[in-house]
Amino acid sequence: MKVLFLLTVFLTISVSFSKPSHHDAGFTVDLIHRDSPLSPLYKPTDSLADRLQNAFRRSMSMALCFSKRASFGSKIDADIFGFYGEYIMKIQIGTPPVQVLGIADTGSDLTWAQCLPCKNCYKQVGPPFLDPTSSTTYKAQSCQSKACEALAGQALSCDSQNVCRYKMSYGDRSYSVGDLAMDTFWFGPTSFKNVVFGCGHDNNDTFNENVSGIIGLGGRPLSITNQLSSIIHGKFSYCLISGFDDASANKTSKIHFGDHVNVTGPNVVSTPIVQKAPSTYYYVTLEDVLVGNNNLSYKQSGSKPGDYEEGNIIIDSGTTLTFLPREFYNELNSRVTNAIRGEIVGDPQGIFGLCYKDLKLENVPTVTFRFTGADVDIPPVNLFLEVEKGVSCLTVVPSDDLAIFGNLMQRNLMVGFDLVNQKVSFMPTDCSMQ
């Protein structure tokens, strides 16, 4: 009954939109890596090692937050490190439109931004706060609205004006509290009316001062991807470039919404999305990992080889590293070590379990993640990353909780989500040419 209720709410919300002002087939938005010189979060004084270490620590924080939200008894040993997320989207909200810089997050649903008047807001030095009184298309949502019902447990008690209040918590100290509302959203020149979002009046200070809030791309009804489903036909895709090398310094990754960029062709492989709680996350099933010619049956602690559960790993664009169950990670580490002839050194950052001095990528074996129905080859440049000069480390780390297929593994893949047919597709692509 809960699934039927959410589906009914989703359909009610999604059909309420007007058609976009341009490009009915879809639209494309830049995804700016937070460590790119194009990003407002970029710190020119940070070295490459600094940026990498910060990204890895954010990965640990992200994994911790995911595990808590998925009701795992989290055992990941990591301190919360600022706010997670690696890619920024620029959109506009309101009439007249006001720029919003949001962390693009496939692990969140409700989009929110800081709003006036602000009871308790973090310092924001980038775009201005949204002012609901200045937008002629702003509409606060009542506690009886379908949008409020779709919050499904994230709604607070009504205020004296019967405005629906939301609270988003992210598993750590970070949260946003405010009014649920509708307004016009602009993605470049493309506008959509009556998009539901959170107008945040109480947001704690773990968020970065250069961003306005969160852009939710998760799987529940109030995410951008689901709200626009009747227009984009439930499809979105992204193509990620590296955020850490000079060659991509002045380029952006892309996220596409709609049918205008189809992930199709002879090199495309697809795997089913598995419905699990929380439905925010995009769960898929990892069956095996192939290291050269050696096949490792995916297993979790206490399970037998080949005895995997469906939906045992999530795909996330906001987590840098890939997390695998500790027992399976140890086997993978051993097989990779046996295949590479090189000098093993300690991790200078204390994060990774396998590092090499002066690693030659041609010596790294082909590694294939074998999802149900989809074999995804991981090139050596995605599997190992030079964390400081002359030291390269395996970008997979152990976890005792949730498994995550991170964004380093997804570089130079077109990753397409079809929420109507419930599948994720992968296609090798030079994302710098997108």
TrEMBL record:
GO CC, any one term: extracellular region
Record keyword Hydrolase present: yes
GO molecular function, one term: aspartic-type endopeptidase activity
Domain Peptidase A1, chain residue ranges per copy: 87-427
Any one GO BP annotation for this protein: proteolysis
Keywords: Aspartyl protease, Glycoprotein, Hydrolase, Protease, Secreted, Signal
Taxonomy, superkingdom: Eukaryota
Location within or outside the cell: Secreted
Family: Belongs to the peptidase A1 family.
Protein name: Peptidase A1 domain-containing protein
UniProt organism field: Mikania micrantha
